[in-house]
Amino acid sequence: MNINLTLIGQTITFFVFVWFCAKFVWPALIGVMQEREKKIADGLQAAERADKDLELAHKKAGEQLREAKEQAAEIIEQANKRATQIVDEAKDQAKAEADRLITAAKAEIEQEANRAKEELRGSVATLAIAGAEKILEQEIDPKSHNDLVSKLASQL
């Protein structure tokens, strides 16, 4: 065997193999590699978007939590104001009721005092007439008796 002929055969076989690989194998491998590269790139982009979405979600959650705390503080403040208002209204109502009761009691006391004075005037007038009768030892007629009682009651 001739080494040159073997070398030429191997060279031709090598070129046919390279041509076959370049024509049929490499495009398939490059397509698979490009598809894989695209999947990896899409996965990285999705991961970046997910990180951004997660960060945005954290910001929104923090913002919502802050708003909820503000609303809770506002509601508590309003409740405290309302409680104070209710207490003040109750105090005002109680004071008004107490004033009304005091006024009614004063009026009742004044009426009782007037009744007592009238009874006392009547009793004093009767006692005065009885004393005068005993002093005079005679009875005074009813008309002059009433006139005398009226005068005496008006002086008291």
Q: What does the secondary structure layout of this molecule look like, with pairings?
A:
Elements: H1 3-136, H2 142-155
Helix pairs in contact: 1-2
How would you characterize the overall build of this protein?
This protein is mostly helical. It has one domain. The longest helix has 134 residues.
Main features:
156 residues, mainly alpha, 95% helix
Taken from the alpha-carbon principal axes, the silhouette is rod-shaped
Element string (H = helix, E = strand): HH
* Fraction of residues in helix: over 70%
Structurally, the number of domains stands at 1
- Report the portion of residues in β strands: under 5%
CA-atom Rg in angstroms: 60 Å
SS field, number of helical segments: 2
Secondary structure: number of strands? 0
Spans with pLDDT under 50 lasting ≥5 residues?
Answer: none
Protein name: ATP synthase subunit b
GO molecular function: proton-transporting ATP synthase activity, rotational mechanism; proton-transporting ATPase activity, rotational mechanism
Pfam family, one: ATP-synt_B
Membrane topology: Single-pass membrane protein
